[in-house]
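#struct-help
A.M.: can someone run this one for me? Single chain, 762 residues.
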Amino acid sequence: MTMLAVDLVIKGSLVLAVAALADVWLRRRASAASRHFAWTMAIAALLALPVAIAALPNWSITVSIPSSSPAAASESSNTAPVLSAPIDPGTVAIAPLTTTTRTGFPASSRTRFNPLLFAFALYSAGVVLLLARLATEHLALSRLTACADDVADPDWRALIEAGSRRLGIGRPVRLLRSEDNVMPFTCGTLRPTVVLPEASARWSDERRDAVILHELAHVARADCFVQRLAAIACACYWPHPGVWWAARRLRAEREFACDDRVLSSGTAAREYAAHLLEIAHAFRGTPAPATALGMARATQLEHRLLAVIDDGRNRGTLARRARIAAAVIGSALLLPIASLDANVVRGESDRPTAVVHIGSTADPSAPVARVGAPAPARATDVREAASASRETPQDRSGDRVTSDDFSGTWELRPAREPGMVYVSLRTAHSQNGTTVPLSRFEGLNEPGMTAAVRDGRIVDGTVRFASRRDAGTFNFDGVCRNQMCGGTYTFVPDPAFPSRLAKYGVGVPTASEQYALAMQDVGVAYLEGIKAEGYAVPDVRTLVRAAQHGVSLDYVKAMASLGYRLDTLDPLIRMRDHGVDPNYVQGLSAAGISKLDADELVRLRDHGVDPPYVTGMHDLGYRTASVTELVTARDHGVDPQFARGITGRGYKDVALDLLIKMRDHGVDPEYVRGLADAGYKDVPIESLIRLRDHGVDPRYARDLASLGYKDVPIESLIRLRDHGVDPDYIRRLQSQGTGHLGVDDLIRRRDHGDDGRKDQQV
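D.P.: on it. Structure tokens below:
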């Protein structure tokens, strides 16, 4: 059992590694639906892995691990758990091996504490607890849907039917409305159900359409079933962090894919992003149940909004043939992983070795390996060793690394701005991109190659060119097709560059630091430029940080022209790193905020206080708001749209701190409008907050009014709600012939346990 657990961990990790590689490969090439399907196959493979291991024959390989010392080798020989081959007693004397039981635990563990047995018990307890939690969450979700009402409104039903046709859903979908103000969500595998909050009755047609399409996309993609599989996999593999990470990636790509479905159906991206943001704000205190698929969870909202407004994003769905082909490829990869049976050979050629079996079962038909005898060398091993002795992966001279260490790929494609192109450079560990004029690549070629750009257009053909910087030279080779270019590049550091920097007192950069400086064209001209702006000469590490964070000479000069000469580069690096650029500073100044220090600018930027936000708040009369007040308002969700909505309900010149208080307590324009429709107009703000805090919503007030309790004082409404006097209770009393009772009588009856039922009256 122990060996089976080890086998599952190793092979499960291989499955996740393959899925992660597929995710990286698909990240810029395919749609979110494709990446979601890849992670779905990984989750399914994890659940199928134990069965595959038990059913498939073993495929054995041998891995040699050298011991670090004779003592370690001796210890290894004496403690090897299970040997994969018979022992020849004439080869070497070995201490008696510890006998084992069928479970894989030593027999002596019956009489003393066994950490392996304890670990297995702990694992089993974790699985049981997580599965129990999953069952409990499912029951809670069932209770919530059982209490919800069917939506019979023809307009809503028409939306469901039209959305089902657009997304190819052939089975009926239930539409419910919950009295609880929960986030819109989808649940149910065999009987798909969409649950809406009570507030959905007042949504605009555009929001209704966006929400219904998003939830139906979950149904069309069978996301509820996949979510259940992921939860079971997390329970079965709960000690493995990779499984939890895979489940998070699955959830993220699921929402991206549903958003893509909505946008592909014709919904405007900007409007849809606004709906997502508003729903996340409105229901941040009452999210969807854990096992349901909520529409706009706050944890991934920022990435989803960026994806929604990304016009260049691949939003395609995965065709059925592609899914079948991917499933076949995934199964073909799973079979060798499940069959893999690794034998680890520990030791060196000049000391005894022991073969340790780490598979799930030992194969009695495997070739006999003699303990103490070195494994015979293969011809391929000899050739590889000879080749390795002639070659070294890196040629170093002191700290210098050759240009082979700085090779990568490049890509050039037209940018949105006319006459500009976007150029990106990628290595195994980094990516850099910038937008430059197309004319820079006009006629770039060497003998035998084709020009990259001719007459303002990227032409098809092969290209080769160099880009020389102070720190070194980039050499590019590639191909241009269909208005795009791509290929490989290498970087050659300039050996004279360190001595040139040393004259400025900067220090001597390494080859990797030269690469970073060349990437941003930081060299002697840069040092002269920052000196002219009054900056102290930085050390080499600060200079590299400035280059990596995009503090170019143009940025330094532009910020200096705006009054930000900061003596050292560190505060500039921090500002640039947080997105404070000249456009942002100029925008704030135009909106009426100027003469801020670097920390204040960073704080505003970090909290999303941008020029449009400031302009909108100033237009509403909040011109004297300080940086702290603006940041606090933004953090609490008070934006111009919210403030305009409150003003439109007749609450003018509301202090900013009071707006924040209203937002925190859920008093939004829709709530104010609902109360006004129920007869409670021009209610003081503090009273609105008290009503909201005590659960008095527009529906409650309307229902009481329909039962004869119209224009009840606010304090009486709050007392009724606090004492549990709801419309259903009043209806039960009135059905018994009690007539119209006063507020005090209703409360007194409720407090004394009278629930208004006939059998209790008798």
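A.M.: thanks! Residues 401-583 form one domain.
D.P.: also worth noting: The CA atoms of residues 465 and 476 lie 5 Å apart.
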